[in-house]
Fold these 2 entries.
Entry 1:
Amino acid sequence: MSKDESRAYLGIMRKRYAAIRRKKGRGHVLDEFCGMTGLSRKHAIKALSPKRRAPGRRGCPPGGTREGRALLARAWKLSDMMCGKLLKAVLPELLASLGRREAVPEEVSREVLGMSAATIDRRLRKVKASCPGGVGRRRRSSLEEHRREIPLKVDVWPEAYPKEPGYVEVDTVAHCGGSMAGCFVWTLTMTDVATHWTELRAVWNKGAAGVCGAISEFIGEVPFDTRMLNSDNGGECINGHIKRHFSEFLPSVVRTRSRSYRKNDNAHVEQKNGVKRKRHRISVSFSFDATGL
């Protein structure tokens, strides 16, 4: 049966069920109704009951005043659109600063300060949706936009293992001693797939100037023309600085990227991770011997 036919049949059976007073007669109506609709007997009793309440909104009724929601939305915009947990922590300071500039009703301020982080996110849901471009739980990452602009290696490379030089893979290794906290040196490694020509460059903190400079030095020093440069999806090789550097100084080099969680797409340089760490340790020991420390 269609929805309209089911609705009409339910109305007819509800009237029949209400008109019958005997238990045995109601049982026959329930058997017929369950056979036609396939519902269980308990569900059929609730559906055919004449005292059945109309379904309403579940949960707590929406609270808050219009003034409280307006003050919360203003504080959210002043906080540079923080999430509910962070906004809850800075609300006292924001409202105190706002109260020094203009008159804020005490009861409205008390209402906003009494909201929990979950209530703040719930009250700001419509305000976030009405913002230009929409604001979700997280702000839009520029890294995702740059990733969409770079084609995948599997689509644009001539084959898995090019036979002519010029197809280079790049990767970084952290010399952090097991902890990513603080600043430390990274090794930027570039490997040509066909000839296995490998160059290592030390970069402080994966800075944009160091990464761009190391890539330009490699392209300028190798005895072949670099056609394509493939990297993983890390932010050190996919960002606005790299994009501007390639468009201005290296327009002939095509940038590609590996698929997410597929290290084999960048296998020729990934397999040198252990060698890079060993070379770094040797160079450090030599520097200590040379300086007499």
Entry 2:
Amino acid sequence: MQFNVKTLRAGTGVGVTVLEAADAGDAARLAALQGHVVLQVVPMPWWQRLRTPGSAHFPVLLFSRELLSLLEAGITIVEAIETLAEKEPRAEVRRVLDAIVAGLRDGRSFSSTLEDQSRHFPALYVATVRASERTSSLGEALGRYVAYATQLDVLRGRLVSAAIYPVLLIAVSSLVIVFLMAYVVPRFSHIYEDMGSELPWMSRVLVVWGNALEHYWPVMAGVLVMAAIVLLQGGARALSRVLGRLVWRLPAVGERMRVYQLARLYRTLGMLSRGGIAIVPALDMVTGLLSVTLQARLLAARRMVSEGQALSDALERSGLTTAVANRMLRVGERAGNIGEMMERVAVFHDEEMARWADWATRLIGPVLMLLMGLLIGGIVVLMYLPIFQLAESVQ
């Protein structure tokens, strides 16, 4: 969930930072970890979340790629961002770039100017740039972030592609069911209402449903509008949490969701570690990537690491590893390349998730088709069942 966090920034005064967090307390803690004094934390209003993507979305990955190309060509960072602003056709994106250039010309660091635009640049990105400023390796840091974001987009694309067919199947079947229940069934109810108790029990239920839709459709439409308003004002988040908890309890699906989140955790920690960020601050930065249950485990692991325990031991005791990850992390600690090893663990589990998603799609598609066919066929049979019985009685 997104929160508007009013903070007191050193050297810049009071400002508002947009953070993604599980709750208000988590958002305040993340802002404090960035060195700010938190004044107020409020959820972002729903109308701000509904703004059009073209006006509010900043293409961080594209910006990083183009900036990296210009820096590798020998152009200074101010000139590079000015060049990107000159060629940018979107006014909102151009304003962000102009603000960054103005901050750099005032003598501020690149990371602090990005932090002023926290609505567009995630905390991980700002932390990566800030770490690179200590070693003057901005190009290398941008390259790592580009690789990190690209790999996440590839995995997300695979999962979305796997979900397209089941979602389309459910959507089309739902439209057919709504058409039958809202248009066809009320027509049949007028035909059967004179038959009274001679109708089968399920057919009488359809008749009642048809009469209710015909006489009380304004009330039902109002209920749907009210439900949509509740969802827009935060009910969708609560509903997703409830559904998420139910899904997490499923034996196979819940474990795959845990592995998916752990892969994101390893990849992000690996990127931050290779960027020169210490492991304890890195663990604080990645808390928002996990579900509420895993966040509590990550906080426990962070406490163990801050007390001097090895990262692999802390993650294992907190239930944040797999059999493969545990062995590879121990090898990385002995070899001194824990960041690189975490990224390798993420790649291993990403490929595993892609194979599972492909298998699940092949299985779920036919199962959904069978269930929807039975449901639609059942409605049609119940509508025509009294006619069949009438024909038998005539014979």
